Amino acid sequence: MSRALASPSLAVQRGILGAVLLVACWEGAARGLHLPAYVLPAVSDILVGLWSKRAILVDAAGYTLLEALVGYGLGCLIGIGLAVAIALVPALRSAILPLATAINSVPVVGYSPLILLWFGIGVSSKIVMVAMAVSFTVLLSMLAGLDRVDRRAVDLMKSFGASRFGVLWRLRLPTALPLLLAGMRVSTVRSVIVAIVTEMLGAHGGLGWVIYQAVLQIDFVQVWAAIFVASAASLAFFGLIGFLERKILFWT
Amino acid sequence: MAIPDSLRKLIRLLLGLAIAAVIWEGAVLLFGIRPYYLPRLSTILMAMAATPRAYVDGFLRTLAETLIGFASGGAFGVLMGVVFFRVRALREMIFPIFVVSQTIPVIAFGALVVLWFGNTLLAKAIIAFYLTFFPVTVNTLLGLEAVDPKQVALMRSFGASSRQLLLRLQLPTALPQIFVALRLAASLSLVGAIVGEWFGDTTGLGVLLLQAMFTENVVAIWAALLAAALLGTGFYAAVAAVERRLVFWNAEQ
């Protein structure tokens, strides 16, 4: 890197400064220009609204996070499983990859009407949607990781009599881990957003449902409060996976 | 062979599509899949042919929203990448806000944008923009930072200005990275356009999807999905083709 890295504390200070400036501008614009709540409510009003509706919002966030987490776990398992199957049986690649790519040529949210019809408006349709959104990213990053392995290292292990499974377990999986975990980290925010998007089209609860109801009731303080909660939930999920990533990848 | 390369590729593509169509049609007939889950391809195509105007109009409308959002998001993303690269303080102040902005569910953001700008083409394009600019910013920044400092020092020693440095060395070096993000952004801008249409509109592929859901018309859902797939892959292929043209030195990989 061409320039010396600024000390991390300075970066953090500037980050905080940026956030404070944003909040100040927001608050100032909303109060100073007397913007109506449906245009832009003041931050303080949103926080007050968030606190007064905290029971509903926490419930909704729990509902959404449950869908996102279960779908995320399922999607990761499917993605990893398919990638490992391709690594073990290379002939599968030409069957699985074109199909996965074809399914993914439609943006994943496009499927939500179909999935809602098939699985109803309960929790299961959201889980399926999240799993679909996550599994493709995980499959691709896992495959890229498995393919990245050094040819010579494979040959060396084979010359010592390692089986295909042995090479996979001891060499290719550890090599693939950094890329896999990077793909999984990217998928966290996406899984929460997909759950919320699907909830908006039909659900019994959750943040997307709360947001949609609030839009219908023109309660924009509540919309913003739900947005704050959704962002916090996404960031927490992202942070959790990032933390696990650093724990697992202790050697990088 | 006399057949040019591009023509052969086209033939192979058409052949692949034809095989996929036969497998689809055959699998539905063979396994007796209920139309509720997967209708026959011919049924879907006939449904599209019955009301072609709705699909053509929807396709063009969604395409326009996607293109405007993509172009503005891509330009803004590259610009912000360069600004963040040049001005470290700005980067540290604004970049975290960008990151947080991407955790806002697009639905919630869409609700606000539609409220601010009405149910217009502009509102949908802004939603597509919002999904597009972030990956482009990130990859521009990454690409610019990966430039070899020795090359920068060399050009500086020949008296290159910052502008020349940027245009002749840094941006071209970052271009492959930028295009990785642009290809991703091509898909994301379509998501933005489709979701944006769910807030109530009269034309567009998202509208067709939603109407089909409310009438529980699975054939119409699949027809809209096919149109969206065509738009998505076509746009992606176009971006990839531009990439092969512009990043010609990276082509044979």
Automatic annotation (TrEMBL), chain A:
Superkingdom of origin organism: Bacteria
Transmembrane annotation, as ranges: 68-89, 96-121, 127-146, 192-212, 224-244
PROSITE patterns: ABC_TM1 (PS50928), PROKAR_LIPOPROTEIN (PS51257)
Ion transport found in the keyword field: no
Chain ranges of the ABC transmembrane type-1 domain: 61-245
GO cellular component labels: plasma membrane
Compartment(s) where it occurs, according to its Swiss-Prot or TrEMBL record: Cell membrane
Main location: membrane
Keywords in alphabetical order: Cell membrane, Membrane, Transmembrane, Transmembrane helix, Transport
Protein's UniProt keywords contain Transport: yes
GO terms for biological process, alphabetical: transmembrane transport
Topology in membrane: Multi-pass membrane protein
Pfam families: BPD_transp_1
Family label: Belongs to the binding-protein-dependent transport system permease family.
UniProt-recorded name of the protein: ABC transporter permease
Taxonomic placement: Bacteria, Pseudomonadati, Pseudomonadota, Alphaproteobacteria, Hyphomicrobiales
